[in-house]
Design goal:
Low-confidence stretches: 525-530
CATH architecture of the largest domain: 3-Layer(aba) Sandwich
Strand order of the largest sheet: 2-1-11-10-9-3-8-7-4-6-5
Number of helices: 21
CATH class of the largest domain: Alpha Beta
Number of strands: 14
Radius of gyration: 27 Å
Largest sheet: 11 strands, mixed
Structural class: alpha/beta
Helix content: 40-55%
CATH topology of the largest domain: Rossmann fold
CATH superfamily of the largest domain: P-loop containing nucleotide triphosphate hydrolases
Length: about 525
């Protein structure tokens, strides 16, 4: 039988032992919920407790998802909205910046609206609103997306012209009901009508500041030119059905630039917000609608965006917003600090970890664990409705989706020095999720078939490529060096490692000469099999 022995221990040593510290994980009763009224996400890392998400335990139903390229953000979003549909019959509206979700939406039986490829939205469509309210929304949108706020006279002229276009179309500015003498719905004016109002004023010669007027006309003309008049035609989509259409993807990849995409996204958020207010609360369980914003930094960053208004009002109307980004500082603090749940996937950059830790107030231990997360692993921060004496940030083993997550790897050993290879903790490979790779390739201008070709090469090599070969492969598909460098940095690689990779790729390219890179890669794969 052993003996007890008294010994002196200083306070520092006692603190290191963490005798009375509760593990950083909420109790099972806070994590589990009725499966018929909640969404299963995965199991916790420490006690392997099944985590069922329900907004009934959080301050609101809104969600932020942050993580570097390839960490599994889109995989999580697809899993979440699919299960929300099964559990609650929730509709989902995806504002799809890069066309990432459109193929998946089609496969699942949803509807894709492709702006710039046959579909259009009339910016002056009121969607049941009073014209006066719609005018305010349009001007706020232009303030966010352009510098018109720095030119008060041009702003005043534009607002006046929009108002006059409505009046010319027989609209009552302070009424939601817009019908002619026979009770038929009036057709709303378009931006071309607004342009004509300004041009008529210019032709009259009565305006005292012709330069300001010409600049105001030029601003409107950017959206009315033939071939770019996506918002200057009558709407081809039924805005009244957007919030009840099941799964709807608004594909913005066919629009020419960020301003056009932002204009479409903000307009849709405004229409959705008004429908949300109009429908009000209903005594049904769950959520009526989830709106997804993925990498839409231009409208998620501005505090005046309607995304912020949805965050502030969505809970009482049973609407939820999911905002996903690889850069948490691209999300408005008004959104980020007020969402009910934040899912943190793999994050490598110290400045992002600093921002997350300062905003969500998690421990240094949790920060270190987040820096080590693999693809599909996550930390979850929940703003619980009731005051809790346990950690509100915890770790998930893996997000368990509707289908297996396909993880790809880039081997780095060939670009590391012998000293680096011998150092403990040296990263010998980086990994990323297949669908997020395809998303990046599409952003770089590759077509669906070309992206699939690159994915098939990964598959033929057992989902693992040597990094220099990968760089040359992308170059042979016409992807700019700057984009390749940015992609490697997005995967969490340090600048010095990226420089070594590009130098190694140059050396390999010289050795290859005219040899086809695909044949080289697959030839190496055959040698490995032999």
């Amino acid at each position: 039988m052993g003996r007890l022995k008294l010994s002196e221990v200083d306070n520092v040593d006692v603190a290191r032992r963490n005798i009375f510290v509760h593990p950083p994980e909420p109790p099972a009763e806070a994590l589990m919920a009725d499966p018929t009224n909640s969404i299963y996400i995965g199991r916790t890392k420490i006690f392997h407790v099944p985590f069922y998400w329900t907004f009934q335990k959080t301050t609101n139903p809104h969600i932020c998802v942050v993580g570097i390229t390839g960490s599994g953000k889109s995989y999580f979003v697809k899993t979440f909205i699919t299960r929300a549909s099964f559990v609650w019959g929730t509709n989902a509206f995806i504002i799809d910046w890069a066309g990432e979700y459109k193929d998946w939406v089609k496969q699942t039986g949803g509807k894709v609206i492709s702006l710039g490829r046959g579909s259009s939205i009339n910016l002056l469509d009121t969607a049941g609103m009073k014209p006066n309210d719609r005018i305010k929304q349009i001007m706020r949108t232009l303030d966010i997306l352009t510098d018109i706020g720095h030119y008060p006279e041009q702003r005043r002229l534009t607002e006046m012209a929009i108002e006059k276009a409505y009046v010319n179309a027989k609209f009552k500015l302070d009424s939601k009901i817009q019908v002619d003498g026979l009770g038929r719905p009036l057709k709303p004016p378009t931006l071309k009508d607004v342009q004509k109002v300004l041009e008529d004023l210019a032709e009259s010669g009565t305006y005292d500041f012709p330069a300001e007027l010409e600049n105001a006309i030029y601003r409107i003309r950017q959206f009315t030119r033939e071939g770019e008049d996506f918002f200057a035609q009558q709407s081809t989509i039924d805005l009244e059905k957007l919030t009840k259409g099941g799964l709807v993807d608004l594909d913005l990849s066919g629009l020419p630039d960020e301003t056009f995409r932002g204009l479409a996204a903000l307009s849709m958020l405004q229409f959705i917000k008004e429908k949300m207010r109009e429908e009000g609360w209903s005594p049904t369980k769950g959520l009526k609608l989830l709106v997804v914003l993925d990498e839409a930094w231009k409208i998620a960053k501005d505090d005046n965006s309607d995304a912020v208004m949805i965050v502030r009002e969505g809970r009482k109307y049973q609407f939820g917003l999911i905002v996903a980004s690889q850069n948490p500082t691209d999300i408005s603090e008004a959104i980020f600090s007020n969402v009910g749940t934040t899912f943190i996937l793999r994050v490598k950059f110290e400045r992002y970890l600093d921002y997350l830790q300062a905003t969500l107030n998690f421990s240094d231990y949790m920060r270190n664990e987040i820096a080590k997360l693999g693809v599909g692993q996550a930390a979850v921060n929940m703003a619980f409705q009731t005051t809790a004496d346990y950690s509100d940030t915890f770790l998930l083993e893996k997000i368990e989706g509707e289908e297996p997550m396909q993880e790809f790897f880039l081997d780095l050993e060939s670009v590391l020095s012998q000293e680096e290879l011998m150092m403990e903790g040296t990263t010998r490979s980086v990994s990323f999720e297949k669908e997020e790779l395809k998303k990046k390739l599409r952003e770089f201008g590759l077509g669906e078939e070309q992206a699939d070709d690159i994915v098939s090469i990964f598959a033929a090599k057992g989902r693992r490529l040597e990094v220099a070969s990968f760089v040359i492969l992308l170059q042979r598909y016409g992807i700019a060096r700057s984009h390749i460098s940015g992609l490697l940095k997005d995967l969490g690689l340090e600048d010095s490692v990226v420089v070594s990779i590009l130098a190694s790729a140059d050396e390999l390219a010289i050795r290859l000469g005219d040899e086809d890179i695909t044949e080289y890669i697959l030839g190496e794969a055959k040698k490995a099999v032999i």
